[in-house]
Amino acid sequence: MIKYILSPKGIILLAFAGAVVAVSVLMAWSELGFTGTTPDWLTDLTSRIGLHGAIAGFFNSLTPSLGEDLTKYLQGKGVSVNPKSTASLGDYGYILFMGVALTIGGIAIMIIGREDAEEKTVLPVKK
Amino acid sequence: MQKIVDNHPLKAFNGLTLAIENAINAFMTSKYNPFYYHGALPQYYLWVLYLSGLLLFAYYIPTIDNAYNSKLLTNAWTSVDYITKSLPFGGVIRGIHRYAGDAMVITILLHALRVWFTDRYRQYRWLQWVSGIVLAIFVLFIGQTGFYLVWDDRSLLLTRMTASAFEALPVIGPGLKTWFLNGDQITNLTLSNFLFIHIGLSFFLLFGLWVHYLRMTRPVLTPPPAVNYILTALVLVCVFIWPLSSGSMADLNQQPTSFDIDWFFLFPYAMLSQMPVMGYWAVMILGTVAITAAPWLMIPKQPAIETAEVVLNKCTGCSLCYKDCPYQAIEMVPAPAGSRFKLLATVKDFRCSGCGVCVGACAFDAIDLPDLPDAEVNAKIKALLEAKG
């Protein structure tokens, strides 16, 4: 197992897996509408495992840069939401990060599965 | 079959597509090469459209007026506005529905071009070509009704343009207009009709696909998951980059004069706005007839095909040739009395292209092409494999 992980294929696998997880984390953050305020379930969960400050700090640190940029872009494209609704600009961010995660995942599978994908032509044995 | 390709006037294009195919193979191997799933790509987007459409249908109200005096959902435009701005992920799902439709048109076009340039649209494939043309026309019309359903100023203009174009047709014109509007003028029943056409014809596509797959051996219906991820991701990223919005609510007392055009679905309206209506119909009808008739118009002169022949005393009824034949030209029938085997392969001459696949598949030298002996076929295959390395 360790030998596999340390092989070039294993390292590629870990790098892509890490990228997918990192982008997927941003999907949860997008659900907040880029405000950076962590939701109750996440606050509760992270406090139980002692990482509340780190995770909340990570989310909140994204707001002044990435969150505001994404909001500005979407509003510039005419996206608006009803203030009384449960929809948010973060819906679009969620989809963006899901799309990026799927792209990374798809490319990773193509790279990792490359060897298995080689076609092998077998001629029938004439009897 | 190879002779036909060699003589094809578009051979250079065929070479270009094969070169692109080889380049992609070098990059991502044949397993993930979308060229080998080009027929399955539009079908994948069809499933995306069904699912996203189901979610939109749950909140869509097919009426055009405010007569119900409700502060909530009162007509088509406000229900679409509610979906887009108030429903959690509603705007996103609407965007997915729209861009999956655009992606379906693009992949259908790529599929058609690929089939055309690789010369797989005629003779034994005429049924796939003709049913594909019918499916493509239905997809376009279904997509256009989707634009009517939003019921903004663009929808109103498109509806009026379509009704006028139908009405201009001789004999059947007035009837078509009445069918399209579900009456003599635009009413709530008109949008009910649009919704019925949009959803009803979508399910008709399944029947059309069934016909499309007839006479195809083991059609590839689904791309591998990794390709599906990328196909989905393309739509999702488009939803973010070009988020959807509606125009202003349609007003029957106004006549909109221009609109943003979606070139994938609404290009016929761009043509209609630039030419006399009868000229438009002449171009559309003659163009469709010409494309549909292509399998018969493009047949080059060639010698008669020598169809495969089964060597009766060698056939074991193993079905290998039956499973491998791309044209379903081989039928397994009960073996004659006295045979050691249960089944016997027989060739349907009218479907056989003389391609030699069955000869290569048979492990018992039990099927031959009169002009191409079994040994010669195997020698050719081995030579190709050795050349490939």
Written overview of the protein:
The complex is a heterodimer of chains A (127) and B (389). Chain A is mainly alpha-helical. In chain A, 67% of the residues lie in helices and 0% in strands. In chain A, helix 2 runs antiparallel to helix 5 (90-112) and helix 3 runs antiparallel to helix 4 (52-76). The model of chain A has no long low-confidence stretch (mean pLDDT 82). In chain B, a hairpin with an 8-residue loop joins strand 2 (330-334) and strand 3 (343-347). Chain B has helices at residues 2-7, 11-28, 40-57, 76-85, 90-117, 126-149, 153-167, 173-181, 188-213, 225-241, 267-272, 277-292, 294-297, 320-324, 357-361, 374-388, and strands at 309-310, 330-334, 343-347, 367-368. Mean pLDDT of chain B is 87; it is low at 1-5. The two termini of chain B are 25 Å apart. Chain B is elongated and about 80 Å long. Chain B is mainly alpha-helical and 389 residues long. Classes of the chains: A mainly alpha (127), B mainly alpha (389). The interface between A and B is large, with 39 and 43 residues.
SSE topology:
The complex is a heterodimer of chains A (127) and B (389).
Chain A lengths: L1 H5 L1 H23 L9 H9 L3 H25 L13 H23 L15
Helix pairs in contact in A: 2-5, 3-4
Chain B lengths: L1 H6 L3 H18 L11 H18 L18 H10 L4 H28 L8 H24 L3 H15 L5 H9 L6 H26 L11 H17 L25 H6 L4 H16 L1 H4 L11 E2 L9 H5 L5 E5 L8 E5 L9 H5 L5 E2 L5 H15 L1
Antiparallel strand pairs in B: 1-4, 2-3
Helix pairs in contact in B: 3-5, 4-5, 5-6, 5-10, 6-9, 7-8
